[in-house]
Amino acid sequence: MSTPRVLSGIQPTADSFHLGNYLGALRQWVALQDDHEAFYCVVDLHAITVEQAPELLRRRTKLATAQLLAMGVDPERSALFVQSHVREHSELAWILSCITGFGEAGRMTQFKDKSTKQGSAATSVGLFTYPILQAADILLYTPSPGEHAPPFQVPVGEDQRQHLELTRTLAQRFNHRYGDTFVVPEAYILKNTAKITDLQEPTAKMSKSASSPAGIVDVMEAPGPLRKKFMRAVTDTGTEIKADLEGKPGITNLLAIMAALDHSNVPELEQRYAGQGYGQLKKDLAELVMDTFTPIRERTEALLADDRQLEAILAQGAGKARGVAAQTMEVVRDRVGFLGRAG
Ligand code: TYM
Predict the structure, then answer these.
(1) Does residue 67 carry a pLDDT above 70?
(2) How far is the CA of 167 from the centre of ligand 1 (A)?
(3) How high is the mean pLDDT of the chain?
């Protein structure tokens, strides 16, 4: 069996990644490169499903790349690339859109939420077909299918589960219609960090588009504001430090974050903080998050100072990715019945 593969992507639509991105997905990206062939992309084609200022998009694409490198994505071991640099993503997305039902796409909850919020006049067709492009991102990097196919995983947070289900359905449908082409990918979602919630609204997902600034903790955040956000995090009126998703969603979220960062677990933390107030937990957690994010922020800033190096890393990543994507597309075009081009 060949080496297992992973693929994942992240949008360059903010001036920083946040704690939810980090714990829900990016930390797993870094860990998985040790024993997987990894493909990680900054998804700029997805970003333009809502309007982006061109210069800002360019800057944020570089910033996203620098943050990923600073977190430990290693360009020697993984293919780190920008989605629009590999044209095959758009091509496969078109083909997959032709085997996706209109109703099926309309059932995607992220689309329903976003389009309801924006109103139909402001909602692009690109936003509607967004999950199909995501399926293409993934399936382009399929290992060879068959009896000895290695695992093929996609590290993401809980909010991407439905898109992964659609990807699996499309892979199976394509295989059924045209012959075995894709390994059906699996979502790689870690239960304890699958949904990090908003510090001000602890039942809602921490989200760059929906959270208030006080509810979201950025990787690039300066220490002062970061500490303040944790100290002001919404908790219930009780005093006991105990996880209880229904009754104490705020404390439960803080405990989950702490357990993930100091590699302990929630029962252990409940014991450690028995008899202490919420203030102590918040203070310790702010320190822990700062210890994690400060070196990442500093490395990101250093990487951003060297444009040439970033461009070279992305060119190398695109080269590696294109090699695999081109091979997959050759098979796909043939299976679908497109006439081969001579010469
Ligand atoms: P994006 O850019 O919104 O988020 C990047 C990753 O962060 C995870 N995440 C969270 N995890 C836990 N708690 C949270 N509060 C939280 N917020 C975000 C997301 O689940 C995601 O893993 N559609 C994708 C990008 C994408 C993609 C792909 C992912 C495009 N192509 C192919 C995987 C494979 C997205 O918008 O992620």
Answers:
(1) yes
(2) 15
(3) 96
Residue 83 contacts residue 41 (beta carbons within 8 Å):
yes
Strands of 186-188's sheet in order across: 78-82, 37-42, 5-10, 152-155, 186-188
Can you give the pLDDT at residue 211?
A: 83
Report which of 64, 79, 59 is spatially closest to residue 12, judged by C-alpha positions. Answer: 64
pTM exceeds cut of 0.70: yes
Backbone phi and psi for residue 262, each to the nearest 5 degrees, phi listed first? -105, 15
Sequence-separated (6 or more) residues with CB below 8 Å from residue 211: 18, 198, 200, 201, 204
**Token couple for 54:** 């061109």
Of residues 47, 9, 254, 21, the one with CA closest to residue 130: 47
- For the CA of 11, the closest atom of ligand 1 is 2
CB distance 49 to ligand 1 below 6 Å: no
Q: How far is CA 154 from CA 138, 187, 279, in A?
A: 8, 5, 37
Q: Closest Cα to atom 33, ligand 1: which residue?
A: 8
In tens, the pLDDT along 228-279 reads 999 999 998 888 999 999 999 999 999 999 999 999 999 999 999 999 999 9
Catalytic entry in 62, 114, 195, 229: 114
CA distances from 221 to 154, 207, 289, 292, 293 (A): 28, 15, 10, 12, 8
Q: Is 282 a catalytic residue?
A: no
Counting ligand 1 atoms within 8 A of each CB, the residue from 156, 193, 212, 254 with the most, and so the one to mutate, is 156
Q: What percent of the chain has pLDDT over 70?
A: 100
**The pLDDT value given to residue 342:** 84
Give the residue, by CA position, lying nearest to ligand 1 atom 21: 156
